[in-house]
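Morning. Coffee machine broken again, so started the prediction first thing and wrote up yesterday's gels while waiting. Chain of 95 residues, entered below exactly as on the submission form.
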Amino acid sequence: MNDKQSYRQRWEAEMKQLNKEIAELVNKLETGIDKEVEALRPKLKAARKKLDELEQKSSEAWGDVKPGLEKAWAELQKSFSDAAARFKRRDQKND
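Came back before lunch.
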C-alpha cells in the first residue's frame, strides 16, 4: 500500500468516527429537546383550559378566571424561558 492510500484510509476512518460521534450528539440533543417540549405541553394545556374557561364566563364573572389564566401563562412563559436558556447555554458551550 502506498502512502497516499494509507493516508486516505486513515482520514476515511477519522471521518467515519467523527460522523458517528456527531450522530450520537444529535440524537442526545433531539432527545433533550423532546423532553423539554413534553414538559411544556401540560402547562400549555393548562393555559389553554383557563382561556377556554374565560370564553365561557359572562362578562361579569370573567374576573374570577383572570388570576388563574395569568398564573398559568406566567408558569408557561417561565418554563419556556428556562428551557430556551438551557439550550442557549448548551449551544454556547459547543461553540
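Residues 86 and 92 are 10 Å apart (CA to CA). Going to sketch it on the whiteboard this afternoon.
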